[in-house]
Every structure is written in structure tokens, then in C-alpha cells.
Design a protein that fits this description.
This protein has 28 helices and 16 strands. By secondary structure, it is of the alpha/beta class. Helix 10 packs antiparallel against helix 11.
């Protein structure tokens, strides 16, 4: 698929890179797959088509392996199971035209095959629109999928074990029949349901499944069985009300109470349920019929996401019908088959790495869809925010937005995943589904297909292949500019790298190692004790506090506050940590500014956990020191003459425009204020041999000999460039005690510094203390 997309797994908040790997690792042994779509979306249909093709390949492969093993417990004649594709787009009374479409003979020559395929599809379209004309879906986007299903049955004859056929089924009750429900008078509803049962759309009164059709009040109410969660979901889809955040008054959304069974919402919900029950009854009946016949078939359902989300609607109806069949059918075999299916569908699909796969399949899975525009990257992804700020009326041009999105997708898909998972449209339904009013028991989907809905934004196949070959999964220096990325802004790479740091900050690191580093840099025992559980999130190159000498009652600015450690120490030193929420004095307070939103989020959460008064006494905001005024103004803070002290520990290393950064610090300080900026510098730029490819971070280090003159030119007095006595080599540290399976980086803390393949192996042979020097820049504003 040559467009931006991600496939996210709810149980691990991780992604599957390709459809092939998704099928191989998660879906190939599923008995039933639900696919909730947005109708007619070409990129969703592309995913569906590829998914069906991959599934049929796997089914044929598993069948062949089963035949070779010949366990005797299941069918082992080498035939692959049939995949039954039940689609909302066709009503159940359209089955004859689907059967005719799939069983039209196909001639052998390729030219005639293509001609026959086109003719058969056009005949299907004519019958769909003219003979029936009730469903109204546009089938043209599904052409490739439908033709693949047809070809699978045409190849069945004489193919033996060579393929897996896909059988098409109509799923819903005809739309014109469903529309009658809310037009019927109460007295005639019973006749309506009896008519629908006689046509085979719903279970008859004599069938055990009929007990799952109505609410407990049964025939007296003629209200189809549903659930509160499902009704809230449908209501929220119509009204836009948030059901993933707790609300004080449930009546605000719970429009259909016991006294309002015939309310408008209730009637609309009943119409929805009628479709869900018809499809649920169809699926349950097919599965039981095939299992009794000894078939190891599998099933995939394609319908609108509202009919499946959170396993409500159709899945709930399937479960209800199988349950009644298992409880009440007089035939023991039927009861046992229904019970086996019920138990199977209540679990996730098995993985072949865990146990030997079942040919007939075990477990169910739900796939949902999400459009990329609802992630609102332009409001959260810093390069897009900056691009919008530079544009007229803050409206980013589409080609700029496409380029930034594609670059993020190709270069750092893991970071894209994190932005998606943090988006409100995804976080609630996929990860925090049980927290809100509805209290869902399961996520909106087991796998969420997030796709760029911009049909004009396509990525060249060669670029995709290059990205795959370069390996998004291989560890590279986040500040490396290869030839493919030579025009990428270094600042964007800095942001992306530290966003990844913030996203893994909650994972515990090596406290002993962090303690050794901080001790070496001059942090005291009381500092380490105060930092406590945050110690493994230390980021820095020196100790600016020894130079800043923060006093009680002062206001402190921390540039590049990272995960918050130096800001927390500043809060202790200035006394902000001793203030309570009722204290109305203006000082002291601490403001941490960082370029990575994930680090800001983590630091703010930790400040709250530590009991600090947020935001009056300490706050963390996203901002760029080169645009410090904008960050402070956005946080409703004064942009001039606000702070007594400014500290920074390592952030200036990666600031491209050092002059602008120091100018902004000068502006933010009050008269008499001071700065203590710890940063790494290059002792002699001439030592950066141009024949080597140096890391961009090294190229961005300040020239040591230029710093004093720069700061004095800005207006700082008493400027001192103090050796931080922070060597880059020779420090003896405890071994890294993180033990992580290298095959799975999902639970590993991301680190900026370290060895990145063989990329900068030459640095190991250089004296870094001779090349670079860590200093703290001190200066006072007159």
C-alpha cells in the first residue's frame, strides 16, 4: 500500500508493519474476523483486499501442513478451508446474484478471462442496481476484492489443495424491509417480526435462537435485544457526545430510559439492531451448519464500524444466538457445536508459536479504521506546528503537510504511532475504553487501521522500498543526516529523538548508573535523595545549579527541562516546593520549557505525583528557545523581565541558532538576573576533519572561543565560561543493568547517546575530551 498507514494493536499499543506480518503473526488462525469499515473508502478497501489475499494464502499453507502431519483430529485431505465473506453491501435476498456471479464459468485464455471478468462484474452491477436496487452501495471500489473472490471459486475445479475459495454472502436484511420497522403500529410489530422470520432474516419462534431476539419482556414489548453500551455508542455516533470521558450526569446522554422506550433515539436504535440481529443470526447459523458438516471453514465480516465497535452490535448478536443454541437446542450435537464455537470466539486467535494451530481456527478478532486527519498532527507534531506558524493565516499548504507526514512515516514510524496513540480520537476508544460513561469491556478494535485519507498523497514505490531496505527497525543515530535526509531540518530530528525519549520515560532505567553520573557531575547526596524515583530520567551534561546558586523566593526558567529533574531541584532551591495552593504570592515559581511534548507531559505528570503545586508553582510548557517569546506568551506568561535565574543542562548543545537563544534568555531575565547554561562545545572546529561524516549534534556544538564575545555582545555582564569538569571519557560507571529482549524494543527505554551500528565507529579512536569541552556559561543582565 503506497500511502501513509499504520496498523495498531490495542493489547500492546504497538504496530504491525505490514498486512503480511499481521496475518502471519495474529490473524491466520482466527475463526472469525470482523472488519469495521467506512464505506467506499479506496484505501480501506485496498487493505481489505490485501488482507483477504493473505488469509487465503495462509489457509492453503496451513491445510497443506495439516495434511502432511495427518493428525487425524480434523479434516486432512489437503483442501484449504473456505473463507466465507459476509458483506453488509449485499442484502440476504441478493444471494442468488452472488452465487451466479461466483459460479460463472471462466475460459482459459488470459484475454478471454479479463473480458469475462469485466462482463461478469457489469452483470452483477446491473442486477444489484436494477433487479434489487435496495442497498445503494457503490460497488466499483470493491471491484478487485469481488473479482478475487470470484476467481477463487473458478479455480476450485480440479485445484485440490492448491487454493482456498472465498464464498460471498449477503449480510443484512433488505433496507426496504428494515425501513418498515418504525412505520409499523405496535399491534402489527409482532406480525412484522413473524414475516421477517418466515423469510429467514430472523429466527423463528420455534428455534432456540429466538430467545436471543427480544428483551426479557419478550413478545409483550417487541423490543429487540441490545445493550446500554451499544445504545450509547450509536447515540454518540449520531450526536457527537463524548462517551469515553466520565460525566457527572448520565441523563445528559442516556436519552432512552425505562419511560422513553419509544423515544426517537430508541426507534433509531431499534432500526440499527434489526440489521445487527439479521447479520448475527446469519453468521451463527452458517457457522453451526458448517461445523456440523465437519467443515473447517473460516469467516470474515465486512460492515460499517458502528455495527461492530467494541464488539457490540453484530458480535454481541452472534454471541447471543450461539449461547441460546448451546443452552436450549434439543439435539446434543447442535448444543456441543454451538458451545465449542461460543468458547472459541470468546478468546483471541491462537498464535502458532504458542501451540499447534487448529485447521478450523480458534478465536475472533476485530479490525477497525481511523482517518489520519482526526489525529490532528498539525496541532501536536512540532514540525507541522512550525510550518503552519510560518504560513499565511496559519494554514499550512497541502504539499508541505504531505511532505512532513510522509517523512515522519518513512523515517520514524514508531514516533508516528505514538502521536496516533496519544490523539484523543484514538486514546479513548482504543486504550481507555473502560474509563468513560459507557464503560466498554473491550477496545473499539483489536487492530486499528489508521490511514491517510488524502487520495492524492501517494508515495513512490521506489521510495517505499528504499525505506524498507534502510530498515526503520535498525538502530541509527537520531541526529544522523544520510544522503536521503540531507535536506531535513536538524531541529526536526532533535524533536523526534526527544519525543521518543519522553514516550519511554515511564519505563524504569538504571538508577545506579544515573546516580554515579550525577555524583560525578557534582550533585550532592541531598540532591539525589530529593530526586528519588526520578533519578534514572536524568538528562544533562553538567550541573548548572552549582553556578546558578538559586535563592529562596526566586523565579527560575529551565531551558530544555526534559523529564524534569533539574526543574524539580530548582523548585526545592527556590522554595516553590514548600508553597501550597492557597498561597497567592507571585514568587517563587519554576517554568520548564522543552521542545518535545512527550517530555513536557511526563514532567508535568511527575510534578503532580510529587505533590508540587501545578501550574502556579511549577509548570512545563512546550517551546523552542529560539522562539521563547511565543512559548511564554502561549502559556499566558510575560515574555520580558520575568525570571531571576535561567538554567539549562545540555539543551543548548542542539540549538542551531545559539545567538538567538542567548538573546531570548537575556530578554526573559529581570534586570539583575543571571544565567547558568551548561553545554558542550567544540574546542577547535578545525579538528572536525571534513573527510569524516560527523554526527549533526557535534556539528551543532558551539565554538568554545566564540561564546564569551557572543554573550557580551548581547548585553550580558560578568560573563564567565566555566569548565564544568565534565569529561566525555574515562568516567567509570556501573554496567547497564537493563536486560531487554533485543527482538522486541517496545518495552525498552529510548536513549539519545550510545553506539549506533558502525556509523560513528571512528569516534571511538578519538580523544573526545580534546575535541569537545563541557562548560557552564554564566552571565548577568544589568
Amino acid at each position: 500500500m503506497n500511502f501513509v498507514h499504520r496498523i495498531l494493536k490495542s493489547s500492546s499499543a504497538s504496530s504491525s508493519p505490514t498486512v503480511h506480518k499481521l496475518v502471519q503473526s495474529e490473524l491466520q488462525h482466527a475463526k472469525l474476523i470482523y472488519f469495521g469499515e467506512f464505506h467506499g473508502e479506496s484505501r480501506i478497501i485496498s487493505f481489505q483486499t490485501q488482507l483477504v489475499k493473505e488469509l487465503t494464502k495462509c489457509y492453503a499453507s496451513v491445510a497443506a501442513a495439516s495434511a502432511n502431519n495427518n493428525s487425524g483430529s480434523e479434516r486432512t485431505d489437503g483442501d484449504a478451508p473456505t473463507l466465507h465473506l459476509i458483506m453488509e453491501h449485499f442484502s440476504q435476498d441478493m444471494q442468488p446474484i452472488l452465487d451466479r456471479y461466483q459460479h460463472t464459468s471462466q475460459p482459459e485464455p488470459k484475454e478471454q478471462q479479463d473480458e469475462e471478468e469485466n462482463k461478469a462484474f457489469e452483470e452483477l452491477m446491473t442486477s444489484y442496481n436494477e433487479q434489487y436496487g435496495t442497498e445503494g452501495h457503490n460497488l466499483h471500489p470493491y471491484r478487485e476484492l469481488l473479482q478475487f473472490c470470484r476467481q477463487s471459486t473458478a479455480n476450485e475445479s480440479g485445484s485440490g489443495s492448491q487454493g482456498c475459495k472465498v464464498k460471498l454472502h449477503g449480510g443484512f436484511i433488505p433496507r426496504n424491509q428494515a425501513a418498515r420497522l418504525n412505520k409499523e403500529e405496535f399491534a402489527t410489530k409482532q406480525e412484522f417480526f413473524q414475516e421477517m422470520s418466515s423469510k429467514g432474516y430472523l429466527p423463528k419462534e420455534t428455534e432456540p435462537m429466538h430467545h436471543a431476539l427480544f428483551e426479557k419482556t419478550g413478545a409483550e414489548s417487541q423490543m429487540l435485544r441490545g445493550s446500554r453500551e451499544h445504545q450509547l455508542l450509536i447515540q454518540s455516533l449520531m450526536s457527537g457526545v463524548d462517551i469515553y470521558s466520565p460525566v457527572e450526569n448520565e441523563e445528559d446522554i442516556d436519552g432512552a430510559n425505562e419511560n422513553e422506550k419509544e423515544s426517537r433515539i430508541s426507534r433509531l436504535y431499534q432500526a440499527q439492531l434489526l440489521k445487527d440481529h439479521a447479520m448475527g443470526y446469519k453468521i451463527a447459523s452458517l457457522m453451526i451448519e458448517h461445523a456440523i458438516a465437519g467443515k473447517a471453514d473460516k469467516y470474515m465480516v465486512i460492515t460499517g464500524l458502528g455495527h461492530l465497535k467494541h464488539y457490540t452490535g453484530v458480535p454481541d448478536c452472534v454471541h447471543g444466538y450461539l449461547r441460546q443454541e448451546a443452552l436450549l437446542n434439543s439435539n446434543v450435537q447442535h448444543r456441543n457445536v454451538a458451545l465449542d464455537l461460543l468458547l472459541s470466539l470468546n478468546r483471541p486467535p491462537i498464535k502458532s508459536s504458542v501451540q499447534r494451530p487448529s485447521l478450523s481456527g480458534i478465536g475472533s478478532a476485530l479490525i477497525g479504521c481511523q482517518m489520519m486527519y482526526e489525529i490532528y498532527l498539525e496541532e501536536t507534531y512540532p514540525p507541522m506546528i512550525e510550518a503552519a506558524a510560518k504560513a499565511e493565516d496559519n494554514e499550512m499548504e497541502e504539499d508541505v503537510k504531505r511532505k512532513l507526514l510522509n517523512d515522519l512515516y518513512l523515517r520514524n514510524p514508531d514516533l508516528l504511532d505514538q502521536y496516533i496513540l496519544n490523539a484523543e480520537a484514538v486514546r479513548g476508544p482504543l486504550l481507555q475504553y473502560s474509563d468513560g460513561l459507557a464503560g466498554f469491556q473491550r477496545p473499539c478494535a483489536d487492530f486499528l487501521f489508521v490511514y491517510d485519507e488524502d487520495d492524492e498523497n501517494e508515495i513512490d514505490k521506489a521510495v517505499l522500498e528504499e525505506a524498507e531496505l534502510s530498515g526503520n527497525n535498525t538502530q541509527k543515530c537520531p541526529f544522523h543526516h544520510g544522503k536521503a535526509n540531507e535536506n531535513v531540518d536538524a531541529k526536526a530530528e532533535t524533536i523526534e529523538a526527544y519525543e521518543r525519549v519522553g514516550q519511554t520515560a515511564g519505563l524504569r532505567g538504571n538508577a545506579a548508573r544515573a546516580k554515579a553520573i550525577m555524583t560525578y557531575l557534582g550533585y550532592t547526596d541531598s540532591d539525589l535523595e530529593y530526586v528519588a524515583a526520578d533519578i534514572f530520567n536524568f538528562q544533562g551534561v553538567a550541573n548548572p545549579h552549582t553556578v546558578a546558586n538559586i535563592q529562596r523566593g526566586e523565579c527560575v526558567l529551565d531551558i530544555g527541562s526534559g523529564l524534569g529533574i533539574d526543574s524539580f531541584l530548582a523548585a526545592r532551591n527556590c522554595g516553590a516546593d514548600m508553597c501550597n495552593k492557597d498561597d497567592v504570592s507571585e514568587a517563587p515559581f519554576v517554568v520548564g520549557v522543552d521542545i518535545a511534548q512527550s517530555e513536557v507531559n511526563h514532567a508535568m505528570a511527575r510534578a503532580i505525583d510529587r505533590g508540587l503545586v501545578v501550574p502556579d508553582r511549577i509548570r512545563f510548557i512546550r517551546g523552542d528557545v529560539e522562539k521563547l517569546n511565543d512559548a511564554l506568551a502561549k502559556a499566558n506568561l510575560a515574555t520580558d523581565n520575568l525570571f531571576d535565574v535561567c538554567v539549562s543542562n545540555g539543551a543548548f548543545c542542539l540549538v542551531p541558532d545559539k545567538q538567538k537563544a542567548f538573546e531570548n534568555v537575556f530578554k526573559a531575565l529581570r534586570p539583575g538576573g543571571r544565567m547558568a547554561i551548561s553545554t558542550t562545545t567544540v574546542s577547535d572546529p578545525k579538528q572536525l576533519d571534513p573527510s569524516f561524516e560527523w554526527p549533526v549534534c557535534v556539528k551543532m556544538f558551539a565554538n568554545l572561543d566564540e561564546l564569551q564575545a557572543m554573550c557580551e555582545g548581547i548585553g550580558f555582564k560578568n560573563v564567565q565560561i566555566l569548565d564544568a569538569e565534565s569529561p566525555l571519557e574515562g568516567m567509570e560507571l556501573p554496567a547497564d543493568d537493563e536486560v531487554v529482549d533485543s527482538s522486541d524494543s517496545s518495552d525498552k527505554r529510548f536513549k539519545i547517546h550510545g553506539k549506533y551500528s558502525d556509523q560513528y565507529e571512528f569516534l571511538q579512536n578519538m580523544d573526545m575530551d580534546e575535541l569537545c569541552k563541557v562548560v557552564t556559561v554564566y552571565g548577568e543582565k544589568p
